[in-house]
Specification:
The protein has one domain (32-355): Pectate Lyase C-like (3 Solenoid), CATH 2.160.20. A hairpin with a 2-residue loop joins β2 and β3. The strands form 7 sheets. It has a 17-stranded parallel β-sheet that branches. Strands 5-8-11-14-20-22-24-26-28-31-34 form an 11-stranded parallel β-sheet, with no helix packed on it. A two-stranded antiparallel ribbon has the order 1-38. Helix content is 3%, strand content 41%. The N and C termini lie close together (5 Å). The protein has 429 residues and is mainly β. 52% of the residues are buried. The chain has 3 helices and 38 strands.
Length: 429
């Protein structure tokens, strides 16, 4: 393997104030009031009412009671599960709980800024850990790029309630607002774990906003097909990917935050964003059916300093010809901006499928890591982006990122000189 080192002269801009990158607002003030960055210290009331394992009729959970969920709980038929603001659901770790909202059923969980809805471990404070319980699975009738147009969600779930996919692209599959999901991701076997929030074949009218997944043992958020525009999502210290997209999902993520620990990762590798154009069961999908995600105003942080550099990798993984756009965002604490698999065959294809505009990158190594692609010039990909002149620790770049109770991920007021030389390393084989 031979490395070529290319010195790219970029015109850099002064970052005005603490929250602007290239003139765009880049802050996380929207996290205030409803998030919790120390959920293990929270003292929740003991559960009083156990939720039935099969919900066949409309059910409302109210905030004057605390609920207990054990094993797999299914919302089926045309039933709607409605959860009031401020409601707490304690989830069993001995018989790990999961909530599965099957096709044609519905979950309406609308909290508010000061009364979020909370799904959390049933363990007492200071003893909770990643993977204590399963997670939330929502199955819709939206479109997939699999040949059959339908699929079965992974997990130890009843087959009759596990099917998703269809042709209702504009379905309102669920509504989640101001919801916290804490300590999910239970391990089923050596190769399979559950996600914090799994969204399968959801429709474009689905509302997912102001949702925080903390300490997931697998992905925090994962989309299998479907479409939609989602905003104000937080992934905090997950073990695997923060935001994972596959199966032909098309949509946008706006104002998202992911915070990773440099020593916490899945054995197969973990990313802030992973996008697969199609699943491994599909030999090829046409360009019109490939997964495509637009990300705007994202803050993707690995809390790594120089001593952690050997343990960090790319912020983004793009596989199987997936398309992705990242705009007005901050990516910090990673070795590379993006890692490509072998399906990307030439620089023209990369330029067409990957768009990076008005972003700030604080990375220790490569702009693009491509194991089998000869990239001799990244100008066409990164020309409108800013790279820090050297790898910065999180506390030198952000206002108060290591605060354990109320961290601030706003950029410090920093002046970057014009025409600074940036070295981007690109792998040739």
């Amino acid at each position: 393997m031979k490395k070529n080192y290319i010195v790219l002269i970029l015109t850099l801009f002064t970052i005005l104030g603490i929250t602007k990158v290239n003139g765009q607002e880049n802050n996380t003030e929207w996290t205030r009031g409803w998030t919790n960055f120390q959920p293990n210290l929270e003292r929740y009331r003991e559960a009083e009412i156990q939720i039935s394992s099969i919900i066949t009729e409309d059910l409302v959970l109210t905030n004057n009671k605390t609920y207990f969920m054990t094993g797999n709980v299914y919302v089926i038929g045309s039933a709607t599960l409605t959860i009031a603001p401020g409601t707490v659901i304690r989830c069993d770790s001995k018989n790990p709980a999961s909530l599965i909202v099957s096709k044609n059923a519905k979950l309406i969980a609308e909290g508010d800024q000061y009364n979020p809805i909370i799904f959390t471990s049933n363990k007492p404070s200071k003893s909770r850990k990643s993977g204590d319980w399963g997670g939330i699975v929502i199955l819709g009738n939206g479109k997939l790029n699999s040949p059959a147009g339908v699929a079965v969600v992974e997990g130890n779930f009843s087959p009759q309630y596990s099917l998703y996919g269809g042709d209702i692209a504009d379905e309102e599959t669920a509504i989640l607002k101001y919801v916290r999901i804490e300590f999910p991701g239970h391990k089923i076997n050596e190769s399979k774990e559950l996600n914090g929030l799994t969204l399968c074949g959801i429709g474009s009218k689905t509302i997912i906003e102001n949702v925080m997944v903390s300490y997931s043992a697998d992905d925090s958020f994962e989309w299998f097909g479907g479409e939609g525009a989602f905003k104000n999502l937080v992934s905090f210290k997950s073990k695997d990917d923060d935001f994972d997209v596959t199966n032909g999902f098309k949509g946008s993520l706006t104002d998202i935050l992911s915070v990773r620990h440099p020593y916490i990762s899945d054995i197969s590798g973990s990313y802030a964003i992973e996008v697969d154009g199609y699943t491994s069961e599909v030999s090829y999908a046409s360009n019109n059916n490939l997964s495509y995600i637009e990300v705007k105003n994202a803050t993707l942080i690995n809390l790594a300093s120089e001593e952690n550099i050997p343990f960090i990798k790319a912020a983004i993984s793009a596989k199987k010809l997936a398309r992705i756009s990242i705009e007005s965002s901050t990516i910090s604490g990673y070795a590379h901006v993006v890692e490509l698999d072998k399906t990307y065959l030439n620089i023209d294809e990369v330029t067409h499928k990957l768009k990076f505009k008005n972003n700030l990158f604080n990375i220790s190594n490569l702009g693009i890591q491509a194991n089998k692609l000869n990239i001799s010039n990244t100008n066409s990909i990164f020309s409108t982006n800013i790279f820090t002149a050297e790898f910065k620790s999180p506390e030198s770049l952000f206002r108060d990122p290591l605060n354990t109770t109320t961290p601030s991920f706003a950029l410090k007021s920093t002046e970057i000189k014009n025409k600074k030389s940036i070295t981007l390393n690109n792998i040739n084989e």
